[in-house]
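Example complex used in Figure S2.
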Amino acid sequence: MRKPALHPQLPAPSALFRMSALRQALLLASAFVVMTIAAGFIAIAIVSDALTDDIDEQLRVTAQNLVPQIHTGLDAVPGSSLDDDSIGFLTNEDVIQGPMSRDAFDELGYRTAFGDEIGLDDDDWRLLVVSTETGRLAVAVELETISDTISVVTSALGTVLALTVIACLATGLTIGIRAQRRLGRMTATLDSFAAGNLDARIDAKHRRGGRADDLDHAATRIDDTLDRLQSLVEQMRNLSASMAHELKTPLARLRVSIETLAVEVTDTHTQEILAKVLQETDTVIGIFDALLRIAQLDAGARRDRFVTVDLTGLATDMTALYLPVIEGSGRTLHSAIDSAATVRGDRELIGQLIANLLENAIAHTPSGTTIGVQVSSSRLVVWDNGDGIPPADRERILQPFFRTEGAGYGTGLGLATVRAIAELHGASIAIGNNNDTVSSRRGYKIEIQFPSA
Amino acid sequence: MRLLVLEDDAELGPWIQSGLRQQGHVVDLLADGREALVAATTQAYDVLVLDRMTPSLDGLSVLKSLRAAKVVIPALFLTAIGGVDDRVEGLEAGADDYLTKPFAMSELVARVSALGRRAPQSEPQTAILHAADLQLDLVRRTATRGGVSLDLNPKEFLLLEVFLRNQKRVLTRSMLLERVWDLHFDPMTSVVETHVSRLRAKIDKPFGGTLIRTIRGAGYMLDPSVSGTGADQ
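Predicted assembly (686 residues):
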């Protein structure tokens, strides 16, 4: 049974760079944009060079045509050749013919010069100076034409580039966001499953309608794995349930028989023995009950019934409940409970947790010990100044049936139940020695930190 | 009282019926859920005892159907061990109390008796409860015995109130834990005993009386008819 897939929100800007798919897409898009801009510059440079070469060729041809016609000077040249270009001639006798200034004839060959340097209009000019028998010939062309062409090319390229950049980024962003969303759907599904919604699935194929890619395949594999996991968890739950079902009847009947016998028997000695038998039977039942409860808690039972629990009130009630027992056994109780502490959870279970911790403290400390309960915001601490526990045992103490003393007291599952309840609430457990500065006894401290409400 | 017991186990059913009959109740035992539903709607019972897992229609559904049909007979729910959700589910379905199998017969007897006397909504709101020369003023939160004022803390006051509201009826340790401290588990230590001891030290010992009696194997009872200087502890 699959529920519809989840739709996560658009990612917050700050989280953008941690998103691999989006980052890759944007990186690719940026690389493409950079390449395109570089290509544009290169294109403009090539065009510019080509145009310049063209002009130089034009000058060369003009000069070539003119040189044979100049004998004594420009006036020997037929008028039609003088139309477009600017032509100047410096005779060997240092006489300037034409509009150009003397500076124009300084260097031989091709060069680019400003108009006011060479006596022409204020613009860029391409200049060719050749020497003839009778002097130096200078042929020049205004680069305005090139500039115009280059401007046209540049703006054309610029427009194309701008459009390309926008298209690139838009495509990159879209692809990236789409891919990120798909990843986000996967992580959201996994989170939901981990939180206890065993029905959560990605359901990718359903959305893509058959054109599945590798992300879809990964999603399908994840869904299949979740199917297996759900089935295993439910099998386990069913196992606990079937175990309970199988054992409850024999245990119940066993107890009934003993109790019936205890009532019918008149001999005191037999009655005493039967009372012990009944007691041990109840211990067995208690152990079995606790084991099953722990299994159910580990499977997430009651989590969906969580409410806001008044931790202050509950801790106060529990300390008041156990005060007479603690004092009656020669120990003292010290409580430091902040007001208005609340946590999110199950009141009955948290109450049992506190009770188990207190009973554990009573059972494992010598007479005269002080037992303390401390509550501050969402943290619960139960400590004592008894003999403490060796560091090696600290973690094992939460395991079922681990005992630091000989067997015989209780079910051995008190702290294991505490662990299960804490985990169900998402709380962390810290165990350590409580360094009591007054008595210098190491003592024992267990801290339950609930998630802040 | 007239009781209906729904329990399909071939040994537990008769045992429950026999135990309750010994207390003087009239007990009808049924093993099928559907039959129990019919019986509960057509006949007048004082208390229903329903097992959770029964054939044809399970106890939980029987209860839900009864409540939906506005049948308000008090119901006690029997569940298997290890059921973390059972109590809450039972309460939500409309149960008034619940017991985990296996249980001691004395526990069942005490709870059935308590349910039987409890009129669902019409318990008169009396301001003063009393037994023999003990008086409890619920409005002013004071307690006196023989005119002498008693110094009780809030939980002791509530404990005494529970006793006074259930005079001559056995209150088991777990019943007291539930009604006074709203806790639903089995403590390893003798918390309830210690609190009852302290209460006795305040209301019985100084006056040489024994209002609160220990019922061996079951629990406690407040009985004003046994006055005098009995040495019961």
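Chain B is about 35% helix and 20% strand. Confidence is low (pLDDT under 50) at residues 228-233 of chain B.
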